[in-house]
Amino acid sequence: MNKILHITQIKMPLSHTKEDLIKKACQKARIKQSDLLGFEIGKQSIDARRKEDIHYLYAVYLTVPGSVKIKKGNPEVSLYEKKEYRLPESGDKSLDMRPAVIGCGPGGLFCAYLLALKGYRPLIFERGEKVEDRAEDVKRFWETGILDTHSNVQFGEGGAGTFSDGKLNTAVKDKYGRNRFVLETFVKFGAPQDILYVNKPHIGTDILIRVVRNMRIAIEKLGGEFHFSSCVTDFKIENSCLTGITVNGKEQYQTQAVVLACGHSARDTFETLYQKQVPMEAKAFAAGFRVEHSQDMINLSQYKTTDRSCLPAADYKVTYRATNGRSVYSFCMCPGGYVVNASSEEGRTAVNGMSYRDRGSANANSAIIVSVTPKDYGSDHPLAGMEFQRRLEEKAFALGQGRIPQQLFGDFEKGRKTLAYGQVRGCEKGETVFADLTGILPAEMKEAFCEGMHAFDRKVKGFACPDTILSAVESRTSSPVRILRGDNFESRIRGLYPCGEGAGYAGGITSAAMDGMKTAEALIKKYKPINEQNGR
Q1: Residues 444-464: tens digit of each pLDDT
Q2: Same domain, yes or no: 335 and 402
Q3: What CATH number is associated with residue 33?
Q4: Residues 260 and 387 reside in one and the same domain
């Protein structure tokens, strides 16, 4: 039987070939290259701690015949046993009606995909459009300012992450192989192979649109059924048990199981659930501004060079605890990216960041955000955090009248309106206008934000440059609500399964997809697959 060797800490120069890496790995494992049956990169990262010696670090897997002797004593060479993700066995409870999945972001998509693989023929309801039509709606909004409140950066097939460059790194600990399954599924449907091993994988908005479309087609071939422009507007609940849903205020669907993967911006859905007395609570999140620098400046700080010939666009991750106790940190960092108008409600402006696959724009941007807790909301209402977000966005809209309001950091600190860009020119999707942003955040948050910017400047030289561009307001960092569920992933309203980022159980594409998988597993363990002759 063949065996697999795991080789770590392989140091390679910036300019190298795959053949160079294979040769070095075999040397480190002390095996003949002629014995090699298979080669796979496990991890690739850049070590830039010593600016005079920037290099790649690899971990790789080598498949060799079982007869090959492995010399002991090297902790960087070990035997590896590959663990495959496996779907659970189906339960024995009858499921007389097709399960419904509300929302078509990563949580909903991966839940629907697993249910479809096991023969449950899910119905998927998405208030927005299919991803290729949604892309046109978003482009039209950026060009004209005309907002479609159901098909935009937040709503539509693929979810909010579709327009934030498809970053796939996650801090979620995973021993069951779900993380790897998510990445392999994306590759299966058209994502680049390198997301399986790069340290901070990303797909790119331009490619992710195609990946999501291919995933939908596969779910349909497995018996799933998508309903676009289909907003779930009511939930029928009898004796604490969900029995059906209403779509677009008129279409009735009976179902025993509903997966609620509505996303963090489905505020009308949160209001409906509250009215229906579905258990929920306010949760903490964070808010601030999208902060924009020259990518060359970030490269110079991180690499000590602006040369991109052998290095990708540099990123950063910064955190700080302000003297007033607030946490300040970077979020959704987009190397070579664009600041985008990510609004979804009339009269309210929210921003986000995104990158295409090549990360080729002149600027880097990230959200620099400040912690917000339920104590800031001024109310103990479960939806108080949502209303806090709305107030921030209303202030931003008033300043820009639908355009992205911007201010240079130097002017922000001095409380004066910006009149012109400095050395950094903005890279945005959507119209912009200069404004005084100093009144958007509460005073304590503004104080922490400025303190954090100067702290980050000590780590990334130039971070607090007066010409740094701020765009308002970054408010959709995570859901301000948690829809409560038990260990079985079910709400106290039986048949309702809160899922993903909108329900308060994930933070990003990969973690939301994994939560969708867990929710699907809970349904699979409970129910038999749907009989193909059953209706909806």
Answers
A1: 999 999 999 999 999 999 999
A2: yes
A3: 3.30.70.2700
A4: no
- All residues at 6 or more sequence positions from 357 whose CB lies less than 8 Å from its CB, including other chains: 192, 202, 203, 204, 205, 206, 207
Q: How many Å apart are CA 60 and CA 7, to the nearest integer?
A: 5
Distance of CA 494 to CAs 279, 488, 491, Å? 12, 11, 6
How many helices (H) and strands (E) would you count in the chain? Answer: 11, 24
Spatial distance between the Cα atoms of 509 and 182, rounded to a whole number of angstroms: 10
Partners of residue 287 on adjacent β-strands: 370
The one-letter code for the residue type at 417 is K
Residues 270, 201 share a domain: yes
C-alpha distances (whole Å) from 264 to each of 102, 104, 172, 283 are 13, 12, 19, 12
Please indicate, yes or no, whether the overall pTM of this predicted structure exceeds 0.70.
yes
Which pLDDT tens digit goes with each residue over 207-243?
999 999 999 999 999 999 999 999 999 999 999 999 9
Q: Which domain holds residue 335?
A: 284-474
Alpha carbon distance 367, 312 (integer Å): 20
- The SS3 of residue 410 is helix
Question: Does residue 276 form part of some domain?
Answer: yes
Q: Is the pLDDT of residue 169 over 50?
A: yes
In a domain, 532, yes or no: no
Q: In the 8-state DSSP scheme, what is residue 535?
A: -
Which residue shows structure tokens 């998927």? 124
Tell me which residue has tokens 């120069």: 13
SS3 508: coil
> 509-526 and 178-188 helices cross at what angle (nearest 10)?
110
- 351 and 258, same structural domain? no
39 and 165 share one domain: no
Any idea what DSSP says for residue 267? H
Helix (H, G, I), strand (E, B) or coil at 198: strand
Does 56 fall in a domain? yes
* 332: three-class secondary structure by DSSP: strand
Q: Are residues 357 and 461 in the same domain?
A: yes
Q: Report how far residue 259's alpha carbon sits from residue 255's, in angstroms, rounded to the nearest whole number.
A: 11
Given 474, 490, 514, which residue is the final one in a domain?
474
